[in-house]
Amino acid sequence: MIGKLNHVAIAVPDLAAATALYRDTLGAVVSEPVPQPAHGVVVVFVTLTNTKIELVHPLGDASPIAGFLAKNPNGGIHHICYEVADILAARDQLKASGARVLGDGEPKIGAHDKPVLFLHPKDFCGTLVELEQA
């Protein structure tokens, strides 16, 4: 069902510092900050040859990332994202096998302008999983 790894998302308390770390210390190509108001975050994409790193920072106090950073003040890996060929078929297969899809179960448009769903971390070895339509 899952295809390639699309990205690893890292929640960061200081987006400018994290961006500088990846750009200046690691020599990576990074995007400008991209606000995602529908998801309550601002993201910076770090482009690698085989995948991306998504630096995620809260956009407002109601951001789900704000809660994560309250528990993990230094930041950390927030989720991993896999591509799927058919997000609705993947959702239906996962639900039929007992996996929990977060939210209302309907795909939302994600930071890459493609439909995404999130899967409950308790069903995936303690890892929040995002699925993105390839």
Features:
134 residues, alpha+beta, 2,3-Dihydroxybiphenyl 1,2-Dioxygenase, domain 1, 9-stranded mixed sheet, 3 helices, 9 strands, 37% strand, metal ion binding, Glyas_Bleomycin-R_OHBP_Dase
Structural account:
With 134 residues, this protein is α+β, with helices and mostly antiparallel strands. The protein has a single domain (2-133), classed as 2,3-Dihydroxybiphenyl 1,2-Dioxygenase, domain 1 (Roll), CATH 3.10.180.10. Helix content is 22%, strand content 37%. The protein has three helices and nine strands. It has helices spanning 15-25, 64-71, 87-96, and strands at residues 2-11, 29-30, 34-36, 41-47, 52-58, 76-84, 108-109, 115-119, 129-133. Strands 1, 2, 3, 4, 5, 6, 7, 8 and 9 form a nine-stranded mixed beta sheet that branches. A hairpin with a 4-residue loop joins strand 4 (41-47) and strand 5 (52-58). The longest helix is centred in the N-terminal third of the chain and has 11 residues, at 15-25. The protein is globular. The chain starts with a strand and ends with a strand. The relative contact order is 0.21. The mean pLDDT is 96. Keywords: Cobalt, Isomerase, Lyase, Metal-binding. Belongs to the methylmalonyl-CoA epimerase family.
Task: Record the SSE blueprint.
Elements (H helix, E strand, L loop, with lengths): L1 E10 L3 H11 L3 E2 L3 E3 L4 E7 L4 E7 L5 H8 L4 E9 L2 H10 L11 E2 L5 E5 L9 E5 L1
Parallel strand pairs: 1-5, 6-9
Antiparallel strand pairs: 1-6, 2-4, 3-4, 4-5, 7-8, 8-9
